[in-house]
Structures are given as C-alpha cells and as structure tokens.
Design goal:
The complex is a heterotrimer of chains A (about 325), B (about 350) and C (about 280). By secondary structure, chain A is an all-alpha fold. Chain A is built from 13 helices and no strands. Chain B has about 350 residues and is of the alpha+beta class. In chain B, helix 2 crosses helix 3 (about 105-120), helix 2 runs parallel beside helix 4 and helix 3 packs across helix 4 (about 135-150). Classes of the chains: A mainly alpha (about 325), B alpha+beta (about 350), C mainly alpha (about 280). At the A-B interface, helix 1 of A face strand 4 of B.
C-alpha cells in the first residue's frame, strides 16, 4: 500500500505574507469590489454633506446676503441658538411632542400587539389593515387629518357634536395644535410599535412560560416577571426608533399646521427647514441641525449601548 | 486519483494552535480517517486541504503539485459537509450537475456523469426532487453524489454520517466503504466516531489538541497505540487505566496486589516509578479465587455481552463478559488480567512502553 | 367548581375586550382613509357643509380629471415619482445587497466590516435635515438641481441602510457551508452570489425592494429641497394644494388617494419581512 515518497520541489521560503495576500486577492478583491458602490454612495451623499454642514455651522453664511460662504465665526452660530427664544421654544415644543407621542405610541402599540397577536387569519388581516397608517406617505396622513380635524367641516368635530360636545378648532387653536399633531403621530406610528411587539411576542420562547405555569404563577405574575423582562431588548429598540423619529417629525407639520398658529408647532426639523430652505440662513440652519444631530446620536448610541449591555448580561447569565 | 502530502502544516488562530506542525501523507487510493475529539484540529486540517482555510505555515501538496495557496476552486477536490450543504433551490440533478456546469462541461457529459453517479448511489428516482423533499439518508447520498460526479483527485468528507440516526449510520458506513472501494478514490475522512474510523479506513490518523498522535492501520492503532491517549480514545468500551508502581523485581504493584508484568516488557528503566497499566475490558476475565478480588458495582446488559464495573482496589474496572452472564450488584468477584494483553504507558507523557501488538 | 366558573368568566371577558379593541382600532384606522377616498369623489360644493356630508350626494371623478388634466403638470409629477421610485429601488437593492453580502462574508482587518455596517446603521438615525442643505448646495454646484437624478441619488443613500441591514441578517443566517460548497464547485464570489445566495434570499430581496419603493415614493424632505418644480414628486404636489388662498380639498384628496392606494396594495406583499426591514434586521419575525 505504502507508495514511496516522491521527492517534491520545496516551495521557496516557508510562507511569505505576500503569497498569502496574492492567493486571497482574487476572492477578497471581488468582495471588496461588491462593497464599493454602496460605500461610495454613503460617503458622497451622506458623509460629505455631513462634513460640509459641520463646516457651514462655523462660518457666517446666508444665501440671501451672499452666494459664497463668509468668514470663520467659531461657535457663534451655536451660542446664538441658545439665546434665540424662538429656537428654544421650538426645542421645548419638540421635546414635548416627542415624549408625549412616544409615550402613547408605546402604550397603545403594545396594547394592540397584545390584543392582536396570533396566527389566526382574522388577526392577520386586522394587523394588515392596522399598519396602513405607517406605510402611506406622511404627507398624505397630514392632508387626511387636516380634513378630519377641520373645525367646522371635519369629521371629528361632527362626531363629537353628535354626543353633544362642541369640538375645538384643532389645528387653529394655539393650545390644541400641538395636541392635534401628537394625535396624528400616534395614529400614524402606534402600528409600528404594534407590529414589532407582535413579532417579538410570537417569537418568545415557550419554556419559561410553561415553567412559570408549572410553578403556579398567576397570569399577571407571568406577564410581569416573564413577558415584560423578555421584551425589554425589543422595547429598548422601539423606544429608540420612536424617540428619534418623533424628534425629526416634519411632513405632518408641514401639511397640517405649517408650524402655526404662530410658532406653536414649530418642531425643530420644521424650524431648521424654514431657516435653511426658506430664508437660506445656511450657517444658522447648519449649526442648529448639528445640535439636533448630536441629540439624536446620543440617544441612538445610548440605547444601543444599553441594549448591548443587556445582551451581554443575559448571555452571561445563560 | 492522487496523493496528499502535508508538510509541517500549522494553523494558528491568534495564540491558539488549531493544528501544529503536522506531517501526513495520504497515499493514492487510500481511505484515511482523521480521528479525534472535537476541537482536535481534524476539521481545520481538512479545510486547509480543501483550501477553505489558509495555513499559517507549512505546505500542502496534492499529486506532487504544491497547492498551499491555490484557491479552493482550482484544487480539484470535492468535499462532503456534515450538514450536506445541498443547494436548497436546486433539484438533486442540478445539485449534482452544478460543479460541472460552472466548469462549462458539455451538457451531454454532465448528464452521463450525473446519471452514472446517481446509479452508483441508488438515487436515480430522486433526481427531480428538491433537497427538502428528501430524508436525511437520501440527502447524504446526494451530497456524496455531488462529490462523485466531479471525479475529483481527492474526496474530503467532514463527519458525513453524524447527522444520521444510529441504524442508518451503520448501514451507510458499509455502503460508503463499498462505493469508495469501487471508485478507487483517495479519501480524507474526518470523524470523531472511532467505530467509523476503524471499520472504513486503510489508515487512521489520530489527533489531539492540534497535534497528530499516530498514523497507522486500524488494527495497529488498536493493538499498538503510540500512547495512552490513542489507546483510550480507540476502543469501545474504553480501555481501563490503572496506576501501578514498578517494583524492584519488575512486577507491577497495584494497591495491595501484585500483577505480573508481561514477560516481554523491559521495565528496568522504570523501577520504583509510577506507570500506567492499560487493559481492555475484553481482556479482563472473571476467575476463581486466584484473581484480584473486587465487588460488582454496575451491571450493563447489552445483550451480546454484559459489561461489569467491578471495584478493585478503589478503582472501577470494566469487564466484558459473555451476554449470558448473570451477576448482581454487590457480588464479590475475582478478576484476572491476561498478561500478554496488557498495555503499559509512561507515567508522564503516556508514551507506550509495551503494547500487545498484532501477530504478523 | 367556583374557580372553574370564574376562570371561564375571565376568559369570556378577555375575549370580549379583545374583540372590542380590534373593532375599535379598525374603525379608528379605516374611517380617515374612507373619508379621504369619499372626499376625492365628492362634488366641490359639498366640502364645507355643516354638518359635513360624509357620503357625497353623488360620486364624481372631476377631481381626478382635474389633477390629471393634460394642461397641468400633475402627470409629470406622477411620472417623476414613478421613475424616481423604480430607479431608486433597482439601484438601492442591487448595490445594497451586494454590499451586504460583502459585509457578511468579508473579513477585513481592524473590524472594518462591522464599522462600515455600523456607518450604514447611523444613516438611519441622524436628522436628514442636517445633510439636506449641503446636499442641496452640492446638487446646485453640480447643476443637478431639480433633476430626477438628484432625488434618486439621495433616495438611494437613504434607503441603503434598510437594504443593507435587512439582507445582512439574511446572509448571516445562511450556512457558510453553502458558500464553501459553491467555492469548491468552482464558483467565484460573483457566481456564488448570483447562483446560490440570491435565489435563496429572493423573498427577502423582494421585501427590501418593496420597502425601498415605499420609502422613496413617500419621501418628502429631500425631494422638496432639491426638486422644487421640474422633478417634483407626488408628495410635494399634495402639499402644493395648500395655498395662501386656502386649501383645494377636492384635488388634494384625489392626489392623496393617488399616493396612498398603490402603497396600500404593495404593503400587503411586504408584510412578510416588514418588521425585520423596518428595524434594520434587529427584530425577526
């Protein structure tokens, strides 16, 4: 059986790094090539403007005054923002809007998920209908609700009048405009929270529930001590999505209140939009948009770190 | 078909050696098993032969051609994966034809080869089915068929039977042997199942922690293991190991009792030191009062044989007895080790001092 | 037994609550849509009646005829929207899934693969308003302002994170043995991708395409900034019915319906991996 060992010419040098590189270049090079188009788009369309905008935020430039950027002004645009009462009002408007909308969306979304989870065909159809508000254009949602909330001819006030309540001028009343926006956002985005929780609820492991049932836990105890903790990673994620997205709301503001009445519903994105694309205060808009960006990134990174820690913790425990 | 030579092959992941300084030659038309517990480096070795992993150093030579840095596709080898890795979206026929299509083989040739391979494997009726419509054993055959169609220089098989149930595994074991005999193929077969390695291979290479322990025929691995690890890994039920001290006259002291060493063992260098005595369960016999006394702790009735665990000098010794033996737990028994069947290993690194070997 | 009885009562209570909630939520969601569609078919003089006329006295298509009047630009907007959506979808899905495959299989030094994947993720979360202005100026400098290309390029970059991360999670789930097997069968990366990987992830690819199309079709901010007239898309056209002289309810309803209806149909097909797509792969159904 044993064949005589044939003398083989030994390759020069045991292994040079270059040989390895050359051998893998075909394979790796091709894969790198796959990555390049998307990466180019990312860098040119998102990365470059981002840097450009950071630069704008430190110069003095308004297109209304000059077609080229002015001199370097340091952080003047930023400090200006923090003394600009309209901007500060807009910050507080945005935070109020964001917190309230997120809170109700989480609550309603989770409740709806809990009510509609299941493989039953009727439930699936229900969910399909319920997600419509989030898939249609926000601009359309705005116009839709503009009609619904119209003071005299709107369906909402008509509905209220049938039970004897005189509805307010939802979008025109200074104290109701923001509330209206919150209602619209909740209507539009609760379904998002819902479908994610439905997905999470249906993919929960069954063993802990059986174990708890065998241990004699009540429904509430199971919910409180098993369901909720198991849903925490998803909750963190949904919270992150909703908090950030509500901070950036623009479309429905644009199509319903257009920031009014007065400045009552000037959300940050709308305010920056106005500064930049209406008054062409490029520098000021850039600086304030960077403030918003830093806020969003802090939230995103904060939540991602929280989620990462949680995962690490649970993996350690397992 | 072809030969495979591995020269000083090393694979390092950061500080961990997956394979260390491996020298191994697989002869033409040889069925070589790479045997060892999980994490011993056998799969890494296979992947390096395949070209799926790049060695940190060393050389791979297939059929006198150094291929260490040749891409997997150009090595002309075929691999059967543990999970089969069939293409779920292709029929059995297209799965088998795929490699040939990629290589732009004429359709007529492809058809001939696929049908021939299908016939060898008895899967002709399955050719138009999809993998998800097949049973585990059928998928296994398709995976083999995909390799056979290629008519490669070397077949690499990575635990191909471990996803099958026990009965099918034994059956496929025999079939694989027939098929590869018929193909006169060079095969590298990774397994952790010593029964597969023993029954199918021309030679077995035993690995541990990335280091090759021994390469030899199955019988030599069994009867003349290079060290205690090989001796313990191969054989079922596994070999008994007992710590003994070599006395001045060359006897072996085991607790209070004395066991006579095999006459051909030269133990002069080990007088006064501890060594390990190995004895396979089938070489331990129940005797009358002249043996070493012990108490039966566990009785495992396997049908064809009965395995006893007898407590002897605070050690559990397994004893293989005929299937009709009727004994109860707690019974006192006397055991005797067949002296010519004893294995002796050095105390430190477990290197063999004496093995029974096989009569030539 | 009493316990048995209370349990059954609790069950009945739960089911009743469940049905009530489902019906109520369906009403809350569908009534506004129904109102929109009805309004788009309502004669102009019936809009501002008090109390509002829910069901029009007769249905009319005049608002649709009005917005699609050949003398108006709406047809152009529709074509713009269609072209932008289709081209964006094709490009984003193509380069996005290629990049995802690369990120899933390529081991780059310094964990570069993870860093690049993370960079795509961040695009989802920072305010687009920050890049809108510089992008506007960039397009102005490149003389691409008010072209379909300007919108398409921006939309591709906005939808890439969704495509990349959705596909990434699917590619990561495919056993690496399939790749290895194809590699041994003689396939290079391109052949593996096209012949083995893509056919196995077709449903995910379709979801990515539908999701991309929805996002592009609905997008307002960037389109409104770089495409004010010639390359105007439908969402902008809707907002243009809100003028200083008041709102043109009829045409606006009709236009909104035009935007909404195709999306609703598409959403039915995108259900399967919608959650995974929207959460960029983080939550799996």
């Amino acid at each position: 059986m044993a064949s005589p060992a044939v003398p083989i010419p030994i390759e020069e040098a045991p292994i040079s790094r270059w040989q390895v590189v050359r051998a893998q270049l075909g394979e790796k090079g091709m894969l790198v090539l796959f990555l390049i188009p998307a990466l180019l788009v990312l860098i040119i369309v998102q990365g470059y403007p981002l840097v450009y905008s950071a630069y704008f935020s430190t110069v003095d430039w308004s297109l209304a005054k000059s077609s080229t950027p002015g001199g370097f002004v340091g952080l003047a645009n930023y400090t200006k923002a923090f003394t600009d009462t309209v901007f500060l009002d807009s910050v507080s408007t945005t935070i109020t809007f964001s917190l309230a909308a997120t809170f109700f969306e989480m609550l309603i979304g989770f409740f709806l998920a809990y009510m509609t989870v299941g493989e039953n065909l009727l439930l699936q159809i229900t969910r399909t209908i319920l997600i419509m508000p989030m898939v249609v254009a926000p601009v359309a949602v705005g116009t839709l609700w503009r009609m619904m909330l119209s003071a005299r001819a709107g369906l909402v006030n008509y509905g209220l009048s049938t039970i004897g309540i005189v509805g307010p001028d939802w979008l025109g009343n200074p104290s109701m405009a923001l509330v209206s926006l919150i209602i619209i956002d909740v209507w539009e985005w609760s379904p998002f929270v819902m479908i994610i929780y439905v997905a999470a609820l249906s993919s929960l492991p069954t063993e802990p529930f059986r174990a708890a049932a065998v241990d004699g836990a009540s429904r509430w105890q199971i919910f409180r001590h098993i369901t909720l903790p198991l849903l925490l990673p998803v909750t963190i994620l949904v919270l992150m999505f909703r908090l950030i997205d509500t901070l950036l709301t623009l479309d429905i503001v644009y199509t319903t209140t257009y920031g009014g009445p007065g400045f009552k519903t000037h959300t940050l994105t709308f305010w920056i939009y106005q500064q930049g694309l209406r008054y062409f205060n490029i520098s000021y808009a850039a600086a304030t948009s960077w403030i918003l960006l830093i806020a969003c990134m802090s939230i995103a990174i904060g939540f991602l770190v929280w989620r990462g820690r949680l995962n690490a913790q649970q993996n350690k425990g397992a | 078909m072809a030969t495979v030579q591995l020269r000083n092959l090393t694979k390092r992941f950061k500080d961990v050696y997956a394979v260390r300084d491996l020298n191994l030659e697989i002869h033409d038309q040889e069925f070589m098993s790479l045997l060892g517990p999980s994490g011993c480096g056998k799969t890494t070795t296979l992947n390096m032969i395949a070209g799926l992993e790049t060695p940190s150093s060393g050389q791979i030579i297939i059929d006198d051609r150094p291929v260490t840095h040749v891409p997997a596709a150009q090595r002309d080898i075929a691999m059967v994966f543990q999970t089969y890795a069939l293409y779920p979206h292709m029929t059995v026929y297209r799965n088998m034809a795929f490699a040939l299509k990629i290589r732009k083989t004429p359709n007529q040739v492809i058809d001939e080869q696929v049908r021939e391979a299908a016939q060898i494997l008895g899967i002709t009726p399955l050719l138009e089915r999809y993998p998800r419509q097949l049973s585990g054993g059928q998928r296994q055959r398709v995976a083999l068929g995909r390799a056979i169609v290629r008519n490669p220089k070397v077949f690499l098989l990575d635990e191909p039977l471990s996803n099958l149930d026990a009965v099918l595994r034994v059956q496929m074991r025999a079939e694989l042997k027939i098929i590869f005999n018929r193909l006169q193929a060079t095969v590298a077969y990774v397994t952790h199942d010593q029964a597969e390695a023993m029954t199918m291979s021309d030679r077995v290479a035993v690995f541990r922690n990335g280091v090759l322990q021994q390469v030899d025929t199955p019988l030599n691995i069994y009867h003349a293991p290079a060290n205690q690890f090989v001796a313990g890994f191969v054989g079922s039920p596994p070999m008994n190991f007992l710590d003994v001290t070599v006395s001045a006259d060359g006897g072996l002291c085991f607790g209070d009792v004395r066991i006579s060493a095999p006459p051909d063992a030269d133990l002069r260098a080990f007088i006064g030191t501890k060594i390990t005595l190995g004895v396979r369960p089938e070489d331990v016999h129940l005797t009358g009062e002249d043996g070493i006394s012990g108490v039966v702790q566990v009785v495992e009735q396997l049908g064809s044989s009965t395995l006893l665990y007898v407590k002897v000098q605070d050690n559990l010794v397994s004893v293989q007895t005929p299937g009709n033996t009727r004994l109860n737990v707690g019974q006192k028994q006397f055991v005797r080790f067949a002296p010519e069947r004893l294995y002796l290993f050095e105390g430190g690194d477990g290197k063999s001092i004496r093995t029974p070997g096989i009569e030539s | 037994m009493l316990d048995e009885k209370t349990n059954r009562l609790v069950d009945i209570g739960r089911n009743t609550l469940r049905i009530a909630v489902i019906i109520l939520s369906l009403v809350v969601v569908s009534v506004p849509f129904a109102y929109l569609f009805l309004n788009s078919l309502k004669p102009p003089n019936e809009f501002l009646t008090v109390p509002p006329l829910i069901i029009p006295s007769h249905f009319t298509l005049e608002h649709y005829q009005n917005i699609f009047d050949p003398t108006k630009d709406t047809v152009n907007y529709l074509i713009n929207s269609l072209v932008i959506t289709v081209v964006t979808t094709i490009i984003a899905v193509m380069i996005g899934s290629l990049a995802a495959y690369s990120l899933s299989r390529l081991k780059l030094p310094f964990r570069l693969s993870s860093i690049i994947a993370f960079a795509f993720l961040l695009v989802r979360f920072y305010p687009k308003i920050t890049t809108t202005l510089p992008y506007f100026i960039l397009m102005k400098d490149l003389h691409l302002l008010d072209t379909q290309a300007a919108v398409i390029i921006a939309h591709v970059s906005l939808t890439l994170p969704f495509v990349v991360w959705l596909m990434l999670t699917f590619f990561d789930e495919l056993p690496k043995e399939l790749d290895q097997s194809a590699m041994l069968d003689g396939c290079g990366p391109w052949q593996r991708f096209v012949q083995v990987i893509l056919p196995l992830t077709t449903p995910a690819l379709l979801t990515a395409a539908i999701l991309t199309a929805l996002l592009s079709w609905n997008e307002f901010l960037i389109a409104s900034s770089v495409a004010p007239s010639n390359a105007k898309t439908l969402p902008l056209a809707v907002s243009s019915f809100i003028t200083d002289k008041g709102v043109q309810w009829g045409p606006m309803s009709a236009m909104s319906s035009v935007i909404v209806i195709p999306v609703m149909l598409f959403a039915l097909f995108a259900q399967r991996y919608l959650v995974r797509g929207l959460t960029l792969g983080a939550v799996k159904e």
